[in-house]
Amino acid sequence: MKEYVGQCHCGGINFRFYSEDSVEIWKCNCSICEPLDYEHLFIKHDDFTIINGEELISEYSFGTKKAKHLFCKNCGIKSFYQPRSHPDSYSINLKCVKNPPEVTNIVYFDGKNKFT
Ligand SMILES: [Zn+2]
To answer: In total, how many domains does the chain have?
Structure first.
């Protein structure tokens, strides 16, 4: 496992997490992931820490409200959130990670039909 860091666009929210250096990510076609082209990297809660900017995190939920979509109040970027599919993990937006791990597999998840 290696340590990685990520942030939102303005840099107000910073986080670190531990991950293998080659990973599987998910892409999802649901109504919230598709417009963002979000790249999901699932990291266990225990392997994830917010370094700073907790006070900038704003939350959005819809539908069953099980997923907590988190974004920066200042710049609007969703750098990680609590997904419905993995209750014990956060989903990190791989695009917000500095020197990200190598992607060796992409799972195309049919969230549009499974999670509505
Ligand atoms: Zn920001």
So the answer is: 1
